[in-house]
Design a protein that fits this description.
The protein has helices at 2-7, 12-27, 33-58, 62-103, 105-125, 172-175, 186-195, 215-224, 257-276, 281-296, 316-323, 332-353, 360-364, 379-401; strands spanning 137-140, 143-146, 164-170, 203-207, 233-237, 300-304, 356-358. The chain is of the alpha/beta class. The strands form 2 sheets. A 5-stranded parallel sheet has the order 4-3-5-6-7, sandwiched between helices. Strands 1-2 form a two-stranded antiparallel sheet. Strand 1 (137-140) and strand 2 form a beta hairpin. The chain is elongated, with a radius of gyration of 27 Å.
Length: 402
């Protein structure tokens, strides 16, 4: 009886092979990911079944060996059936998701535009390292991006001379993930608003934003690059790229439907726990350093709260919709909690140093028409922010005049 119990453990061998192949397929990129699991594992199991069938004819295994082979063959057949059903479910799920994404302009633009083209654009341009190629023009999604002689993005003719300089720093939102030809990012929109006012020719606006940059990276850039620009005002818009410890995670598609569901649940749960335990103290210190660096260089910082088209209080179904458009944040809920925490710390820093706050979160938050995806702004959203920034500059000038 004890030997029969031991023989049953042989069923774990094909089950272990199943987990190994699922993980192996997850580490492979491209189309091979979706063939390694169903085809590779099915072939491996069929080979195991063939060997298990030939072994008894060549060797005398005894009662324990015969029982072990019996359980092993049963496990192989069981796992083979699960693999075939699981692969079919995974393929069907992937096709349904592709159709849903294609029908939704917002999700389609994020998945097939920003994630595929936007990130590759930043790497090829050298923006991840902190410097874009000067005097170059590149394609981004469905628009072109121009860089001036200093390597800053500029879609308008640069001012040859201006009395005052305004610097805009942040990540991809401030940089402008422009999705259509003719779209103007926030800094260029601000330049246009100022040029159309009675302050024409007085300001030069510099787009110093770089996609994907965290605040600590921007602080380093400020020390050796931005501080030399002599900006009178520095606008900072960010907060989504600085993640809570342990939050980072990707909800990827795997050939296994079961593993896709399990991984999505695991990533969401880990991100939720990370942001709920996160107090934003490190981010607050980085903001303190940023404000002090600005003032040491003679610039006055303006801190902008981050805006999302959703919040943590949205329905579960609505948050699942935005989950598709998360890039490393784990889940939409985790993104919303992270942004709320960073906004609270930002307000504390602003109150401590007497820094002006532009409440972009309240200006745009929850209004889907202002967003092209889960965080990047549409042309309407960018124009709205540009106009609000111009009002901040005007208010600052009025205070100085008094």
């Amino acid at each position: 009886m004890e030997k029969q119990r031991l023989s049953r453990f042989s069923i774990l061998l094909p089950i272990t092979a199943w987990f190994v192949f699922v993980h192996a397929s997850g580490s492979v990129t491209g189309g091979m990911r979706f063939t390694l699991y169903p085809i590779g594992l099915s072939g491996f199991l069929c080979l195991c079944l063939l060997i298990a069938r030939l072994i008894p004819g060549s060797y005398s295994l005894g009662a324990l060996g015969e029982q072990s082979l019996k359980w092993f063959r049963l496990g192989c057949l069981l796992v083979l059936g699960v693999v075939l059903l699981d692969s079919a479910a995974g393929w069907s799920h992937r096709k349904r998701l592709d159709r849903a994404i294609t029908k939704d302009p917002r999700q389609d633009l994020y998945i097939n535009g920003f994630l595929k083209d936007g990130l590759r654009f930043a790497r090829n341009q050298g923006g991840v390292a902190g410097v874009f190629r000067p005097n170059s023009v590149r394609e981004l999604i469905r628009s072109s991006v121009s860089f001036d002689e200093q390597g800053f993005r500029s879609e308008l003719s640069a001012m040859k001379s201006a009395e005052r300089t305004v610097l805009c720093v942040g990540g991809s939102v401030m940089f402008g993930m422009t999705s259509e030809a003719g779209d103007l990012p926030v800094p260029d929109g601000l330049q246009r608003v100022l040029d159309a006012s009675d302050r024409a020719g007085e300001y030069q606006v510099i787009n110093g934003a770089i996609p994907g940059k965290r605040l600590d990276e921007l602080v380093k850039l400020f020390r050796y690059r931005y501080a030399k620009l002599g900006a009178e005002v520095v606008f900072y818009y960010g907060g989504i790229n600085t993640l809570a410890p342990g939050q980072k995670g990707y909800r990827e598609l795997y050939p296994s439907w079961l593993y896709t569901r399990w991984n999505g649940h695991r990533v969401s749960r880990r991100a939720r726990r990370a942001v709920e335990a996160y107090d934003g103290a490190a981010y607050m210190e980085e903001l303190n350093t940023f404000v002090l660096l600005c003032r040491e260089s003679g610039s006055e910082p303006v801190l902008m709260t981050f805006a999302l088209p959703f919040s943590e209080t949205n329905s579960a179904g609505d948050l699942r919709y935005w989950d598709v458009m998360q890039n490393g944040q784990g889940s939409a809920y985790a993104s919303a909690v992270l942004v709320r925490t960073h906004t609270e710390r930002l307000r504390e820093v602003a109150a401590k140093h007497g820094v002006r706050v532009l409440d972009t979160g309240r200006l745009l938050g929850g209004k889907r028409d202002y967003f092209i995806d889960s965080c990047h702004l549409s042309q309407a959203g960018m124009t709205k922010v540009s106009e609000a920034m111009a009002m901040v500059l005007q208010a600052s000038r009025d205070e100085d005049a008094e």
